[in-house]
């Protein structure tokens, strides 16, 4: 165990991931061979709940890089003087390990990564599969250049492309595996078309109602894909998939007693259910001393805000909070299924969330 004066090391980090069961024998060797620090630039930030804090000094830098935390490597798409929103990072190692495990790669498989970022995941894939089988695309040219340099310095030469990973990679034949390391609001059908039937897609999804969920999809013979959610995953979004702000809310507030602690809305199982029942409703939250405060809004100008232990306020047309309470009781009657009981099907017509079985699609509630 580290004393307060010891800076944690990368072998400590890999050991901790292995002890948590996140790395099988082969992946453990791969992680050991690819030091994370080789892919992290000097200027980085720590992600706090409400902002990014610059990391100052070598010890603080090493402590962050060798911890199970994301390391923010770019703010505001590289613009100077912006609000300080993280737009590129070296992801949390335990999440990387989970996603690579779910990707289920085998020798000889071709992999496409969307979101090269610092190049660390691409390097891990190169170490596991060999350079020639790894393809990685990054939208931001400055980030892509830094990743290419870091990869070359450490001796890895995957196929790299600067461009929009949502668009097909020209001339790339079907791959066996696709991993997105930026969050998607929906799985673009075009992405699936790059994966052979039987291939696997692992991607974090972030919708208006969820902070993030990991989907593991298998591509079918007809080109559609389906599979379960595999727990939570908070990732920075693909640029064109950034979750929009809350809607503008109209009208005077109406107070009433709440039949539901707003903290329940943050449970990922309920969030997946509620998003499918109440499409278009957006939610944000903040922690309070007693629990949480949530705001929910919809395009028609309706909204509600609720704080743990207090009355709820509803705005605009309809009774949005009551719709959410109804969705909660439906969820409760279904036995409060956990996030992994839900799954996703993606076709050329869009995507649908289901519970337990792809035939049990959760349909939108009628207002
Ligand atoms: C969390 S970082 C990826 C971390 C990376 N896998 C690593 O090993 O460091 C997400 C990256 O996705 C990139 N990105 C965002 N939208 C994209 C898009 N449409 N196509 C490709 N990359 C995109 C961002 O610029 C950012 O660098």
From TrEMBL:
It comes from the Bacteria. One of its GO terms (biological process) is methylation. CDD domains: AdoMet_MTases. Its EC number is 2.1.1.77. Keywords: Cytoplasm, Methyltransferase, S-adenosyl-L-methionine, Transferase. It is found in: Cytoplasm. One of its GO terms (molecular function) is methyltransferase activity. Pfam families: PCMT (PF01135). Belongs to the methyltransferase superfamily. L-isoaspartyl/D-aspartyl protein methyltransferase family. PANTHER family: PROTEIN-L-ISOASPARTATE O-METHYLTRANSFERASE (PTHR11579), PROTEIN-L-ISOASPARTATE(D-ASPARTATE) O-METHYLTRANSFERASE (PTHR11579:SF0). This is Protein-L-isoaspartate O-methyltransferase. It comes from Streptomyces durocortorensis.
